[in-house]
UniProtKB/TrEMBL annotation:
PANTHER family: CT120 PROTEIN, TLC DOMAIN-CONTAINING PROTEIN 4
Principal cellular location given in the protein's record: membrane
Taxonomic path: Eukaryota, Metazoa, Chordata, Craniata, Vertebrata
GO biological process: lipid homeostasis
Source organism: Sciurus vulgaris
Membrane topology per record: Multi-pass membrane protein
Name of the featured protein: TLC domain containing 4
Gene name, Swiss-Prot/TrEMBL: TLCD4
Keyword Isomerase: no
């Protein structure tokens, strides 16, 4: 077993068991300490709460390392198709360990948090990451895709506010909603054209031809994930517009009550 394989297996297993530990034990203890409202939640809500705590931890971890790799990892920047680095490989293995862990949790608690789109998302990502870890290809591209995870903490925070029955128009809720929409758009939608532009620029080159069948895996998984990102972006945009409309309506009503309308 070569060094890279050992690194992948050890990181992936450590990631899997760490996120399982976070879900089943750490989140219960931490959430009860930080948020008194956690203890008042139903069993079903607690399951989803813990799932989202784990999701946030994973997103921050791989997202921050992904940013570092995107800007400073010389080996993968110099050769986005075939460049390798231990940090990039570890980040992909960490994400893969989380995805396997989350798939297991989704299956175990399917009636509570089961979602067919998450299953599709996780399987598509794992399919792509398999080639990165096995063949050491597209590490830079895979880590670029992981930047999309930087939007997840805001999406999860929105759910936490809702579970704790925060007013929809509270300052914290509105600010998080705006940040969620902006960050989601930047890391998941704005990132789409440059990615496919890069694909087009390397198409037919010698490094691209060397990928072989991995070419189809790269393109197909990106298409699946980006279609889902666009669907989620539309849903988030509709929710954001609805909130803005309600805020305007409330302000108009307040103005009428105060006699400020001409």
């Amino acid at each position: 077993m070569d060094t890279n394989t050992k690194l992948v297996i050890s990181t992936l297993c450590t990631s899997f068991f760490t996120f399982q530990l976070l879900f089943h034990f750490v989140s219960y203890w931490f959430s009860a300490k930080v948020s008194p409202g956690f203890n008042n939640l139903s069993f079903e809500k607690k399951i989803e709460w813990n799932s989202r705590i784990v999701s946030t931890c994973h997103s921050l971890l791989v997202g921050i390392f992904g940013l570092y790799i995107f800007f400073f990892d010389e080996a993968t920047i110099a050769d986005p198709l075939w460049g390798q680095s231990s940090l990039a490989t570890m980040n992909i293995a960490t994400a893969s360990g989380y995805l396997i862990s989350d798939l297991l949790i989704l299956i175990l608690y399917w009636k509570v948090i089961g979602d067919k789109y998450f299953i599709i998302h996780h399987c598509a990502a794992l399919y792509a990451y398999y080639f990165v870890m096995k063949d050491g290809v597209l590490a830079y591209i895979a880590n670029f895709r992981l930047l999309a995870e930087l939007s997840s903490p805001f999406v999860n925070q929105r759910w936490f506010f809702e579970a704790l029955k925060y007013p929809k128009f509270s300052k914290a809720n509105v600010i998080n909603g705006i940040l969620m929409t902006v960050v989601f758009f930047v890391v998941r939608i704005v990132a789409i054209p440059p990615l496919y532009g890069f694909m087009y620029s390397v198409y037919g080159t010698e490094p691209y031809r060397r990928l072989g069948l991995i070419q189809c895996s790269w393109i197909s998984t990106c298409v699946v994930l980006d279609v889902m990102n666009v669907m989620w972006m539309i849903k988030i945009s509709k929710g954001c517009m609805k909130v803005i409309s309600l805020i305007r309506q409330e302000k108009a009503n307040n103005s009428l009550q105060n006699g400020k309308v001409d």
